[in-house]
């Protein structure tokens, strides 16, 4: 039976030796991968639920949007981004030269027309009043004359009545005497009848005089009451009627004057309002009513704007706050009033603050009231609003903090917006011990790639470069010195002798393998194995 080849035996032995090492490598790799996955799952699950720290936070502040009240050209923009404005300070000026004044022109024309009508009515009323006054004087004079005349006529009528009464009484006495004579048959009845007729005539004359006296007394009383009747008072009646007509016309004109005056006042109010409206549409001076810091400008000088276009956005830095996202499980630990620390990238001293409000969610309308939108939350997360402590800000913490900020140029460079609005920060609860996963990984990464690590690597690289340069210089100087040349000659001779000895030994070994000794058993099988070993060695 032919013996097994030594080459195959060595291969099998080497494979058996490699199996345990390969298994260990696979096991170690599996454990490493499992450990990394478990670490990643733990850092991704537990810190968001239990972390006392959140880097999903941003500095925010309420804003006030200033829009163009009219259409026109921006003639002046006096504010600039980052400028702090006091209440009432001017921001921009807008002028509109193309304004429609048709309504104002129509109102001006109507006002002038009413003024003319009012003036004419007032003058006519004054004229009527003057004419009425003149008529009153004339009527009074004629009334006085009429009263005097009527007084004389009344006195005359009374005298005639008295005369008629006296004549009647005389005739009655004659009739009574003649009646006695007739009764005694001393005279005829024919003598009595003419006397009786005369007595009746006297009685009728007395009644006529009494009626005439009553008429004159009635006329006198009517004249005293400004009632003019009869032929004698016809002129007074005409004057009184004319005076009454003029007085009514004056009253009508007074009413018309009142109406025209009210209409004129109303139109003048409309005219003033229209002029004020046109002035407000012609020139508009935009002011910061409550003050603030200019966050952005929406229009430049010389640009045409329409009503409602954004001109400037002001941010109230006095009410700046930080809003961060935490898990619902941290609601009790982050109750209102809890003290926290706020730190930003590149800063060395954190700011202080306290939790002012907790919101489960916000809306788009709420986001529009602030400089930047609130960060997006995920399931079972909440917003924590943190009020900043003004005594811990860099502007109000003394020379030490000012020196730190001045020494850290990157921190100053990052503050490109007023009161750091929009800057991402990290909120950490005081006495908290569970960090955020992202913050922890950033800290680990910064140990290798951070500013301190980069400085250390730079120092190490410069030291290595100087050491290599020094070694190279020493090697060059050593290689070119006489002692080195002698040493290199000795080494070269020794290497040549060693090479000759190795070459002779190899030739002798090849000769022995090619011509094996017959008395040595197994030499034929051992030669290939030694040759294989020699080949493997070389």
UniProtKB/TrEMBL annotation:
GO cellular component: membrane
Membrane topology: Single-pass membrane protein
Protein name per the record: Chromosome partition protein Smc
Segments for region (Disordered): 513-538
Compartments in which it is found: Membrane
Main location: membrane
Superkingdom of origin: Bacteria
Keywords: Coiled coil, Membrane, Transmembrane, Transmembrane helix
Coiled coil: 140-167
InterPro entries the UniProt entry points to: MFP
């Amino acid at each position: 039976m032919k013996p097994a080849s030594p080459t195959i035996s060595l291969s099998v032995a080497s494979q058996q030796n490699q199996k345990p090492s390969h298994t260990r490598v696979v096991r170690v790799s599996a454990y490493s991968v499992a450990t990394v996955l478990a670490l990643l799952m733990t850092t991704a699950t537990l810190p968001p639920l239990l972390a006392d720290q959140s880097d999903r936070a941003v500095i925010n502040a309420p804003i006030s949007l200033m829009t163009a009240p009219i259409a026109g050209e921006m003639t002046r923009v006096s504010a600039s981004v980052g400028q702090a404005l006091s209440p009432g300070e001017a921001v921009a000026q807008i002028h509109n030269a193309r304004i429609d004044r048709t309504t104002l022109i129509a109102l001006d024309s109507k006002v002038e027309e009413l003024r003319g009508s009012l003036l004419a009515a007032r003058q006519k009323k004054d004229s009527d009043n003057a004419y009425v006054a003149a008529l009153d004087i004339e009527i009074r004079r004629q009334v006085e004359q009429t009263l005097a005349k009527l007084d004389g006529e009344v006195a005359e009528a009374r005298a005639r009545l008295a005369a008629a009464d006296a004549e009647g009484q005389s005739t009655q006495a004659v009739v009574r005497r003649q009646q006695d004579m007739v009764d005694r048959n001393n005279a005829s009845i024919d003598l009595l009848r003419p006397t009786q007729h005369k007595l009746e005539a006297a009685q009728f004359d007395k009644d006529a005089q009494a009626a005439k006296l009553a008429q004159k007394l009635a006329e006198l009383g009517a004249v005293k009451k400004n009632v003019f009747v009869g032929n004698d008072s016809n002129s007074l009646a005409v004057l009184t009627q004319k005076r009454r007509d003029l007085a009514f016309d004056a009253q009508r004109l007074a009413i018309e004057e009142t109406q025209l005056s009210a209409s004129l006042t109303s139109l003048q109010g409309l005219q003033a309002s229209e002029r004020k409206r046109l002035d407000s549409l012609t020139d508009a001076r935009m002011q910061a009513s409550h003050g603030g810091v200019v966050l952005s400008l929406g229009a430049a000088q010389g640009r045409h704007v329409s009503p409602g276009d954004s001109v400037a956005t002001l941010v109230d830095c006095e009410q700046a706050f930080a809003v961060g996202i935490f898990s619902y499980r941290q609601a009790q630990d982050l109750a209102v009033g809890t003290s926290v620390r706020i730190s930003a990238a590149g800063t060395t001293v954190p700011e202080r603050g306290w939790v002012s409000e907790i919101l489960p969610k916000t809306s788009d309308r709420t986001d529009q009231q602030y400089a930047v939108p609130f960060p997006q939350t995920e399931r079972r997360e909440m917003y924590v609003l943190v009020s900043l402590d003004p005594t811990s800000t860099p502007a109000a913490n003394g020379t030490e903090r000012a020196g730190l900020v001045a020494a850290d140029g990157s921190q100053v460079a990052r503050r490109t917006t007023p009161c750091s609005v929009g800057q991402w920060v990290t909120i950490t609860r005081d006495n908290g011990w569970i960090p955020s996963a992202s913050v922890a990984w950033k800290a680990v990464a910064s140990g290798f790639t951070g500013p301190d690590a980069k400085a250390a690597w730079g120092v190490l690289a410069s030291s290595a470069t100087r050491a290599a340069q020094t070694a190279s210089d020493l090697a060059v100087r050593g290689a070119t010195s006489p002692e080195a040349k002698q040493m290199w000659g000795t080494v070269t001779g020794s290497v040549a002798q060693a090479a000759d000895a190795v070459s002779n030994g190899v030739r002798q070994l090849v000769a022995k393998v090619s011509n094996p000794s017959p008395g040595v058993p197994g030499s034929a099988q051992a030669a290939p194995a030694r040759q294989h070993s020699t080949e493997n060695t070389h």
